[in-house]
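Person: At home tonight, work slowly through the protein below, taking as long as you need, and write a paragraph about the fold.
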Amino acid sequence: MARKLRCGDSTRRTFLAATGGAALAGLAGCIGSTDDDSVRFVLNPAEEQTDIVEEYTPMKEYLEDETGADVELIRAGSYVETLEALETDQADIADTSPTAVPAGDGFADVVGMRTAFGGALYFSTIATTPDSDIDDLSDLEDEVMTTGARMSTSGTLSPTVMLSEAGLDIGNFPDGDANDLELRTAPDHDTSRERLINDDEIVAAATGAFASAPQIPQEQFDDYPEFVEHSAEYDDAGGDIDDDNPELQLLAVSDPLPRAPIMARSEWDDPERDDIEAALLDASEDDLIPDDVDEDYELWFTGIQEADQNDYEPVQDILDELGLEFQDFAPDEEDDE
């Protein structure tokens, strides 16, 4: 029997603050058509150049082989839109951001936490250029800094807490302006890093370590033992430094953060749900990234481990520290981790 997409139907309050504009479904409409009886897997990229449907195709094929289900991959425009799709029965399962976990309580379940080379934790970094006069975070007062998307846990929210802990007045950022420095959001981690390199007005950039560590010499991370122990990025830190990817100077590393989850619609009660979720948790690196996949289309994660909402308490702590709720985020400029 064909599924009915209930575009805009919602069982809880809209995610947007009163000043944020129309409800998501009215702004974005249905995120895509779907085949009868297919499992609707909604995706959203974290990096500018990502062809996320191409990246997830090996996972789709693995899930179909393991379960016999027909899996449809649907690219969303933002993570707010992705969570809206779970709430309004436009998706059964989704690639979501860590920030979405507390917001999805009541209509979206955590299936598992994505891992990279065995690591379930990742980190934010704040970096500058080697020729700048910035030696520590306090030097950023009265300067211009770029961050990731407003909703990004590692690109914006965690770094904002880091700035506050360094004694800088962050004002209402990211739901408004900071007071002690100018903070500019970027659409994604890569763009934040590139703006630091290409815009002389910008003296520092916040990103997830996966976007910065390849251009930061490895020894600069040695003062951060948790990063050395837990980060999948440590072993190859500095490995991309060349004329096209200039060296960056590390200023600070965040506390460990839980990696992004896979979430499912709570009311998804089709028979294939248990099989899909079991196959996801059983997937090996070879299942997710087969040998014949072009390296430009490799997934950033190598496995999915069992997790629940309690594992994302550090994300809720960050939101609480900043006085934010998920509905404070408008649907533009959002990304994954």
